[in-house]
Amino acid sequence: MAKNRIFILGLISIAIFFQSCLKDEETYSLAIGTTKLIEGNRYYFDIDDNEKMLPNDTSSIQDYKAIDGQRAFIYFSLLDKKISGYDYNAKVIHIENILTKNIIPLTEETTDSIGDDRINITNMWLGGEHLNIEFQLMGTLSSQKPHMVNLVQKQMATNNNIDEYLELEFRHNAHNDPPNQLRNGIVSFRLKNINTNNYKGIKIRANTIYDGIKYYTINFTHNPQIIKKNKGILNRQIN
Questions:
Q1: For residue 165, how far is the Cα from the chain centroid?
Q2: DSSP-derived 3-state class of residue 68
Q3: What is the pTM of this model?
Q4: Average pLDDT of span 41-67
Q5: CA gap 96, 84 in Å, rounded
């Protein structure tokens, strides 16, 4: 099993389309979306409100490597020219990839590597065929102590799902990193690879930092997106 790990620096907060300042003289907007490859090196962003953005001016991000299905924060300013088939024509100023993972089965063989260290869910929402989770964990700034987070589905026991919710567990492996400081992060989990038919929503178990085991629910039918505001480039490093 591939172990995608995450090392968090500083505070993370996200926004769906907000205005702020990248430089004193330059305004920009921020969106969250999924990278979609077209052909060759061409790509667009599937924004979480089911609209498409074409990065028509990428002069500021020439070294960005587009990966199909990668979730990202997109800092942009709109261009005046309308492009057929797209809701937004944009100059992209900056892109920051979001840790993007599949929901995986939890088996007897993978329990130890998945871990169950303490972690808080501070916000979650559905968007772009993903379940997006903001979280808090305890750790240090050492790059030698990377953390791993996963969303897992138990395979070791029968699911007695009387509430008609898909039951998952948000798991954290701190890899023995000392719990010296509170760290924040965000991760997007793909939903299209699991069966969500006939479920009202998702129920998630988490072993929280302060309150032990807690359960969080999110419904498929009613999911108002939470808008937050922040200034400047988000301070983080995601591997």
A1: 21
A2: coil
A3: 0.80
A4: 93
A5: 26
